[in-house]
Amino acid sequence: MEVFAQDRKPADSLKTVYVFDMKSDIDPRMTRKVKLALEDARDKNAAMIIVHMDTYGGAVTDADEIRTLFLESPTPIHSFIDKDAASAGALISIACDSIYMARGGSIGAATVVMGGTGEAAPDKYQSYMRSIMRSTAEASGRDPRIAEAMVDENIEIEGISKEGEVVTFSVSEAIQHGFCEAEVSSINEIVARNGIENFEIYYYSPSVVEDIIAFFLNPAVSGFLILIIFAGIYFEIQTPGIGFPLAASALAVLLYFIPYYLTGLASNLELVIFVVGIILLAVEIFVVPGFGVFGILGIICVLAGLTMGMLPNEQFDFTFVSSGKLFAALLTVILSAIVATVLIFTLTPKINQWESFSRISLSTTQQKTEGYTSSFYSSEMLGKKGISHTRLMPSGKVLIDDEMYDAYSRGEFIDRGEQIQVISTEGTSLRVKKITG
Length: 437
Known about the structure:
Layout: E1 2-5, E2 15-22, H1 28-43, E3 48-55, H2 60-71, E4 77-86, H3 88-94, E5 98-101, E6 106-108, H4 123-139, H5 144-149, E7 168-170, H6 171-176, E8 182-183, H7 187-193, E9 199-203, H8 208-216, H9 219-238, H10 244-262, H11 268-287, H12 293-308, H13 323-351, H14 355-358, E10 385-388, E11 395-400, E12 403-408, E13 419-424, E14 430-434
Parallel strand pairs: 2-3, 2-9, 3-4, 4-5, 4-6, 5-8, 12-14
Antiparallel strand pairs: 1-9, 6-7, 10-11, 10-13, 11-12, 13-14
């Protein structure tokens, strides 16, 4: 945390002013940040909390969760709008105990829009947004009708808005209509206006754990983990029993999903879809060999689980997921899968040449020219005679010393009942020839 103190009285009488930024999209990651910041402010017994805001909004569900946290906070929360508090940002600001704006700032334009096209969302979403804007304004002592007009262009308020346009206030307009307490230029000015003279300012900064989570949320890192997942599964199937490829793949799955799960992007649904995909692939490989329905469905489920885990969807509802985020997630997963496939087929023939790999697997071939042969039968069978029990075309059954054996001829057909002689015991079948004369 960065700390700034105003040492006007003894240190033991300092009051804590807690500040955190809200300068990106309102999404599950922001919701997690707000929860952590509020918990930290409570632990530090903060006298007031200031949200330094500059956002164009985001997901309505996350904005609703954040505004509820603000309304229920026992510590006064103040919004410092440094330029913009649009859409979800406007809702969150209205939930604060007071609103301050920097020169050139604006608040409003809270119409719900589709993530992919930017067009207005269906009326059920607008109705929901109007409702929570109205109730939030009532709870914070602001005009609920104006709050609704920030969402609905059909609401006309005399002297403020005309039909066909949503309300967006400049600094002076927000002050005039009770949606801003004052124009300020700094955090210190907000503190002074609230009568606090001896204070220290804590700026929220992520913990080491949060930095690690943020690292694994990087698309490049996510793509690398996906590569390990696919490669690990493939090499474990090719060399069952070694365990290392499977362990690497399992670790990559955990490192991939846990950060998205903790930030609220991935849910149990994505995990279930991914696991079902792995099960379907296992069924295709071990139960019903061949590349069919189970294999295709398995690949689709694995790719879908990985992609959806990166996106803030609600039960397959991608209404508020921007086309850019959707494209980035699909591109990351598909490109990683393609790269994994290329590397698998490129590197597999060369793996046996790696010294480290040869220590855990058999990397040499026992050639017949070097004297290596395989034999299922003892050398005592060589030269023995018997009769063909079935017709050899060229393989079949023979009887030798009243025992049945698998056998094959040198390519000739041998009828049932013909006399035969063993000429080779290599392999799992006896090689025989027909005795003539």
